[in-house]
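All-trans-nonaprenyl-diphosphate synthase (Geranyl-diphosphate specific)
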Amino acid sequence: MSIQPLTLDLEAQLSEFESRLRAVVRSEVEFVQLIEEDLVTAGGKRVRPRLVFLASNVLGGVPGAMELALAVELLHSASLLHDDLVDDAETRRGKEAAFRKYGNAVSVLSGDYLLSRLMALLAQTGRMELVAMFAETARQLSEAEVLQFQVAALHDYSLENYERIIDGKTASVMRVACEGAAVLGDAPVEEREALARFGSLYGQAFQMRDDYLDLMGTPEVLGKPAGGDVREGKVTLITLRLLEAYPEEVEAIFKRRASEPHDIARLQELAELSGAGLEVTRAIAARVEQAIAALRVLPHSAYRDELEALARRELVRVK
């Protein structure tokens, strides 16, 4: 596969991305192919590839943006295959989780297959710095996921740990999507730093919003019952606030993993009574505004506007 010619048409880039993704994950092993087809056809928002293309386009287009977008999505997809297994998830993007259909070993090894394809894509760019950045991102992602289990096991709930978790497991991937484009484009230091900061802050807001909705969203919005994080012992920003306001009651709910029928409804009620829900939505809004402010050093363009709009959509989704 060769580096794609430059184009600044976002929709054309995303369409080409879907075609290339199918080719990249193709395997002669039937079970691997079935899992990868599930990932491709299930789609998703493709937020991370979109970030790559927008960051690239802000810089006037960079060689290797397609390979970077594919690599970022494969890293994300591999982490989902592994996460679903350790979380004992029922579904992924509305479909039965891969490990439930094909078994634990096949699911884990198929995630490893995606990582192998990712390394081939990075090699095509010829940029060793990008390879090092992905290695660091994979380290941060893995450590954050383990930290999340450690916090749940030891009940070591703190804002510091929560920030470390969301930065490692979500923001790090968003960051490498944006900063990677700057590396490929040999962008000036201030522009590279701006895109890296945007990716970090946007990724944090993105995860904070997901965590908020996990408790406060409706089954219709979530596509699953609310409160999954509480049942897994995962503390998020909103439940941290509830632990501070109602320590005994909320700790008891966490200890029994919300096993009582009305536990989640009670946490939702407490979030409304204490103002914790409003406080968290304000924190998300502040993180979004910080992300947008980071972009101001970049030349104004329709692509910068779209990056700003992408960040602001995180505010719409908490309502």
